[in-house]
């Protein structure tokens, strides 16, 4: 090792350097680089229980539910709200809608009154679970309450997001005018939520407001460029406006983006109704 360090130094000695007594070369200052001690690497900080729950939710809702139940059992008082929310999401991921709704509401009741935003969010999640269960009237009552709480908490964005679900419930109840008002609130308060724009476009199209629908679906496409539902709706709006070419392109993009999906099958059925392309690509 030392020889390999010395050889380059010896090679740098020119002819003007004399030979010392005994024929040896004069000693040059030599600094042998020493290996630096490796810095101690601190072990990663353990994940919080909330982070552990999120990680499990992404891989196994059943395991997430088990984890949340154990966490809930060990928590006291208002600290039970967070594991309750985790459990509710895990149950919803398993389509156990009634259990999820009850769990979200229990978590909401355990949330302190001085946390109105969290209470509103949990109420909205409970309403969403009821909506998924088909209990539309009950869902709307909870969502209206959560919407009011979000406004009271001065959280307009959350209020806007809850209004999207309010609109879903109102459409299911055939209250299209009220649904349109709810979606206008959603677009104003949560303007970057693509779902609000997609639902707005769908409702406008059903009401025969094709110009508004076209504008709204364009915004939805900018916010959700890879969402096949947006492509499907864009095609429907286009064909109703007499633009078969744009409709065909939209539906073909859906089939390419989500092959084998229910949305792709719907897009293919629309293409079949439209018939063969009179001006195929490659011309």
Q: What would you note in describing this structure?
A:
With 283 residues, the chain is mainly alpha-helical. It folds into 2 domains: 49-191, Tetratricopeptide repeat domain (Serine Threonine Protein Phosphatase 5, Tetratricopeptide repeat, Alpha Horseshoe), CATH 1.25.40; 193-283, Alpha Horseshoe (Serine Threonine Protein Phosphatase 5, Tetratricopeptide repeat). It has helices at residues 2-11, 49-59, 61-74, 81-93, 97-110, 116-132, 136-152, 156-172, 176-189, 194-206, 210-223, 228-240, 244-257, 262-274. The longest helix has 17 residues, at 116-132. The radius of gyration is 32 Å and the shape is globular.
Which terms summarize this structure?
Serine Threonine Protein Phosphatase 5, Tetratricopeptide repeat, 2 domains
List the helices and strands and how they pair.
Layout: H1 2-11, H2 49-59, H3 61-74, H4 81-93, H5 97-110, H6 116-132, H7 136-152, H8 156-172, H9 176-189, H10 194-206, H11 210-223, H12 228-240, H13 244-257, H14 262-274
| Tally of helical segments | 14
Number of strands: 0
The CATH homologous superfamily of the largest domain corresponds to Tetratricopeptide repeat domain
Low-confidence stretches: 1-28
- CATH architecture call of the largest domain: Alpha Horseshoe
What is the mean pLDDT? 87
Number of spatially distinct domains: 2
Précis, in short:
With 283 residues, the protein is an all-alpha fold.
